[in-house]
Amino acid sequence: MRGPWLLCGVLCVLLCALSWGEIPTVISYQGKVTDASGNPVADNTYTMRFRIYDDVTGGSVLWDSGAHSVSVTGGIFSVLLGESPQPAIPLDFSQNYWLLVTFNGVNQTPRQRLASAGYAYMASGLVPGTTVHGHIVEGYASSLTVINEASNADAAALYAFANAGAGYTHGVYAANNSPSGNGLFARSTSGTGLTKGVYAQVLSDEGTAIHGQAPSTSGSTVGVHGEVSSPDGIAIRGIASATTGAALGVLGNNASPNGDGVRGVSTSASGQCWGVLGISESTDGRGVVGWAPGTSGDTYGVAGESSSSLGRGVWGLASSGNGWTYGVYGQTSSSEGDGVHGSATATEGLAYGGYFETESDGGIGVYGDASALSGTTYGMYGQSASPSGTGVCGVTTQARDLSVGVSGETQSSHGIGVLGFASAYPGSTACGVQGSTNSWIGAGVVGYNSNYSASNAIGVEGGCAAPGGRGVQGYGGSTSGTAYGLYGIAGFPSGSSRVGVYYSGGLAGTGTKSCVVKTSKGPTMYYCQESPECWFEDFGDGRLSIGRAHIELDPVFLETVTISEVHPMRVFVELGGDCEGVYVERRLTGFDVKELRGGRSDVPFTYRVVAKRRDFESDRLTVCEAARTDPFLYPEYEENVRRRFLEGITRAEDHERRSDETRLLLKRGAVPDMSRIAVLRPD
Hints:
Helices cover 6% and strands 22% of the residues. By secondary structure, it is mainly beta. Strands 3, 4, 5, 7 and 8 form a five-stranded antiparallel sheet that branches. Strands 19, 21, 22 and 25 form a four-stranded antiparallel sheet that branches. Strands 1-2-6 form a three-stranded antiparallel sheet, with no helix packed on it.
């Protein structure tokens, strides 16, 4: 049956939730078909087709049901558009659409515009921009409350999802206008278990699970603030559970000149609680990382402060019992920066700019390593501006084995293992480096060069830029027995020369110069002869033959002396037999011995030759300026020497007192219990 049809229909979007977050776009369409006279068509099955367009006329087909049979009774029919076996409707209904119905091959015009049912907007979620208003009278009332009763361990009372693939979107955005309010407040009310007030997770390899930002450019703003009142609580705990990579337990950024990237406050007045505790289990991870990216100004990567008389501004603990671990590790990329900088601003008392300690029987209290292979590097650099201060003070409380108070090492070809610098005013008794020991076989300072092949290796080197200064000064202050101001020992390698003390440039002193030999009396001193001029001498034997003898001096000896008309050699001959007597004719490289009165004797003789040392020909009775304050020559200066010695003893005693005080603090438990860290580690 064919002819002009009149078709009218009612469209509504059928909304029936299949599961949470899943709303099907199935359209219920009901219509009535009549003939040209307005009478319902006969009851039968008719062929119908439905298409959705993006325009009222023309446009593109966005969905097509295809032709299928529809039962009509009394002219009335009802269909579900998008129901199988029809194709699903792939539209988000974010714009206007028009439906074209074809009945028995005839298009019914005009197209019908699709419209929503009255409250269908709320079916799949809040419309963007929807505001929920509430009036909070008192207590913890809320504008919007979402409760999840599900027993599923992963169920969420509120799920927010920012699906945009780009842009600065927020899964949850909370704001607050109160000066003391909270933009976002989360509470875990369970009294047991490892619950979280706030739990955030990010799947992006560059994302941030929790990001705190204080955009204000002034004031004491806080990017992230954590607070705990429990004596064993943790204000903020960051855990990087990755076992590899540069994972970060906690990362905080701040743009305010007075703000904090991360601030942890523990308000408890007792107990071993932490304002901030960072734990990382990664082999390359960091429990806490502080980074000051500013290229100028007095910035701090990490700043720690303590107001307690026994507190620590910064405390680092490496609890591993083995491996190359660091309690505190500091690094700088600046050519003038400090890897670790400690400052004690107190002007009195037992304050330490940096305090290092080891309890291991093979440990090192302080270890400094300058690994650069060139440049003026320092393994350890200590500086004191106080007249009685100490540039570097290292204390090891271990009373046995190879423990080291201060150890400095450098691998640079021009580096310095330990450098001490005292910048106090001239005339003070400040020391760049001072070592003292109470052991009867110990050494105040030990310098050792372990290179077995270098001929110019140096165990200890001292230098001084002052006109009358001392590169190295040793003082033996004992009032009894034999005291040594400077004592040098040479090893005993077979077949090589041994020099206990070597000097370059000159050797002067007010005491005697002695050689000690072994005799029946014991070690016995032989004294050197002194001369107002600088002479080298040589000895030898000769023999007259027919009253004459020529002696040619050793060529090596001639390289060390000057023999000329101005500086002639001196020759002393002693005859070994009877003759008329002899005289000497001196030459430049030797001399002739001749018998008097033309004698022709054949007798032996010995000789002694003395000649001026080369380059020191004019030296005679030279004044030694360095000895003007020598107490052996000028007793009035003895008190100054004694005072310096007593100050050194006082400084050593003060050092020992500080060591005793340190040990006392340790006995009182001033150092936090190391074992608690293991308890705080996550399961």
